[in-house]
Design a protein that fits this description.
With 383 residues, the protein is α+β, with helices and mostly antiparallel strands. Helix content is 24%, strand content 24%. It has one domain. Strand 2 and strand 3 form a beta hairpin.
């Protein structure tokens, strides 16, 4: 089927790369006399997304993606013009019929349950002047320029610009997959049915984690009842440090019931691992954060392309103008993705809130680290 997107939707869902990133960028500002070759990143790159990686590899994600790629996934448009994807069906058996007073039972029957979730468009646009495009298609970075991951010796400025655009698209997309909701729009987030919307749903159980060991006893009861496999616990790295500090051996050297710890100090509950990801909510000022219990059996994502869009998901646009200084025309490259995050059974999920941070991570002990605790760009720099 062909998915038609209006110009209004494109503009509403696009991120203006030129305004957001190029305003304070040195891409294309090649050094003439100053030697910029001796440089290093201000911080570690914040373009690793462990929770997104897990989400894209769950069995339900793989199943949905395979059906989409083959053209067999059910996608419809509702009466508001929003595309909806039909999630994989779940089935069960009916309750027994009342045969009291009869000689025989009657067979059970099959019943099924299905739901739809909205598909949202994501877009980044990179616009430039005609003359600029001509020149930067020829001009190459030299030894004394700011050579790094984003701009490399010998490549053209346009090559570096395209790399930055794709890395930016990946960063924005990952954040929307985890933190997006259908009614949230910020400098980073577009309206998108992300994992946060799934976890905040009224059908996902909410637990209070003021006592970490106690709340996991409750989780253990749910796991024992539910059965299944593929569970993980996602949280901010600071929350994970707090969990690890709470899981300590007793006087006999035994860890609390259900807990294990490996040689690297990583902890597991009932054998299930933790995923430390800075996108999971934490409030350093209040000294608490969240833990999301997820199951790969029911939690997944469907995306049109990879985080760094394939060529078929890019478009070049050309428009005439009356501005001679701009070459009487403008050019833009658009990078697209679309998709949704979903679950097929909320009983396998849990949101644990108010998990206290370790006292070693509170107050002035983290002064100066705000820009890296919840990064707002790929390589944060503390100015």
């Amino acid at each position: 089927m062909t998915i038609e997107i209006s110009d209004y939707e494109l503009n509403a869902n696009s991120t203006d790369f030129a305004k957001t990133y190029m305003k304070m960028s040195n891409i294309g500002e090649i050094g003439i006399s100053t030697d910029y070759s001796d440089n290093q990143p201000a911080t570690d790159f914040q373009n690793r997304f462990p929770l997104v990686d897990w989400l894209m590899r769950t069995p339900v994600s793989v199943q949905a993606q395979a059906r989409f790629n083959s053209g067999s996934l059910s996608i419809t448009k509702d009466n508001k013009g929003v595309f909806q994807v039909l999630l994989p069906w779940t089935y069960g058996t009916t309750l027994p019929e009342d045969t009291t007073g009869d000689c025989c039972w009657v067979p059970l029957n099959l019943t099924k349950c299905g739901q739809q979730v909205p598909i949202s468009l994501l877009c980044l646009k990179d616009c430039y002047q005609i003359l600029e495009n001509f020149i930067y298609g020829k001009k190459r970075f030299q030894q004394n320029d700011m050579i790094n991951y984003f701009q490399r010796e010998g490549e053209t400025v346009n090559d570096a610009r395209r790399r930055m655009a794709k890395e930016s698209m990946a960063w924005f997309t990952a954040h929307n997959m985890i933190l997006g909701t259908s009614d949230t729009a910020t400098t980073v987030l577009k309206k998108f049915h992300g994992l946060l919307e799934v976890m905040e749903g009224s059908d996902v159980i909410k637990l209070t984690g003021t006592n970490v060991l106690s709340v996991f006893d409750t989780v253990g009861c749910r796991l024992a009842t539910l059965g299944g496999s593929g569970y993980v616990f996602a949280c901010h790295p600071l929350v994970y440090e707090s969990v690890k500090s709470a899981v300590q051996p007793n006087q006999n050297g035994m860890l609390p019931s259900g807990w294990t710890k490996d040689a690297n100090g990583d902890v597991y509950y009932n054998g299930y691992p933790f995923i430390a990801d800075k996108m999971v909510p934490v409030d350093v000022t209040a000294g608490k954060g969240e833990i999301w219990m997820l199951s790969s059996q029911v939690t997944g994502a469907l995306m049109g392309t990879t985080l760094r869009p394939a060529k078929e998901y890019t478009r070049d646009a050309f428009a005439p103008t009356n501005k001679p200084a701009d070459g009487c025309a403008s050019e833009c490259t658009y990078y697209y993705n679309f998709g949704t995050v979903f679950d097929t059974n909320p009983n396998y999920l849990a949101l644990i809130s108010d998990v206290p941070l370790n006292t070693a991570c509170l107050g002035s002990k983290l002064d100066g680290l705000d820009y890296i605790l919840k990064p707002e760009t790929i390589v944060p720099i503390n100015k």
